[in-house]
Amino acid sequence: MTFRSSAAICGALVALAVSVTVARCETRGGYSNAVVDAASGDAVVGAASMYNPFKPGKEEGGPRTASGERYDPSAWTAAIKTSLRRKFGGVQFGARPKYALVEAAGKKVIVKINDVGPLRPGRIIDFNERTMRHFDPSLERGVIKDVRVSPLSGDDWTLGPVG
């Protein structure tokens, strides 16, 4: 009888742990509107373009970004304008990358800000290829206007589209 009670309690605890983990993953992946709204308070609005410094044969995996990571065209990353570095938590070599919510053309995506650069006038952010394709699948536009970029605090973000 004691064994059955212990087994039942153990089973209930395992079921509770699994349900909490699943609920946490579902919450993090989708992000509630309250979290998205809270992040958009310090937004910067401007134009976005795409950059891809990768040149096959030059450096395996592409050049390093400001955070020290290699540029990855298939990740959800971006470079912020150098003058916005402080607003986004000081993106710098060897430091942890920062995160941002990017909104444009009715779409939202969370990206890792792992690079900075002297972007062209009016541009506030340069997307890597994957992020740009989210907003411009054919890559024909070149520049996306009225992009809203909001810094996100912390580093526990799931990168990619926000549903």
Automatic annotation (TrEMBL):
Query: Which regions span the lipid bilayer?
Result: none
InterPro entries with a match to the protein in the record: RlpA-like_DPBB, RlpA-like_sf
* Signal peptide bounds: 1-23
Q: Name one Pfam family in it.
A: DPBB_1
Q: Where is the RlpA-like protein double-psi beta-barrel domain?
A: 45-145
| Key words of the record | Signal
The family database entries (PANTHER family) matched by this protein are listed as:
ENDOLYTIC PEPTIDOGLYCAN TRANSGLYCOSYLASE RLPA, ENDOLYTIC PEPTIDOGLYCAN TRANSGLYCOSYLASE RLPA-RELATED
Give the protein name, as stated in the record. Answer: RlpA-like protein double-psi beta-barrel domain-containing protein
